[in-house]
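Hey L., structure's done. Input below.
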Amino acid sequence: MYQEDFDNAFSQEKSGDDIYSRPVRAGKRTYFFDVKATKNNDYYLTITESKRKVEKDGRFSYDKHKIFLYKEDFEKFAAGLEEVVKFIKEKCPVQERVYTESSENEAPQPERKDFTDIDFDKL
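Output:
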């Protein structure tokens, strides 16, 4: 996870209502699962997708999208999410990606399965 993602997530909404946060780094995106409290100490969840991008002047900025999920909707949301994830996995199996620090800055390369090991000294 980019340190800027983590730092910015906590500096933007430090109004005393933050209870718990779990950042999840996934390729070029970071997802933040934040538990917050209302003034009446009732908990709710915010899910934020943050994607780092480079501006024309070379500075970094972040595209962010946020969902507010209230506890009375947790069961329906979880059931709907589980259903669509199951559907996708059945219809189009997901290949788990393994992210490394070096691969985040490189363009994706297609995996080559059939190649010949050539010794150019023998040619």
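The first strand starts at residue 18 and ends at 26. The chain has one domain: 3-106.

-- N.
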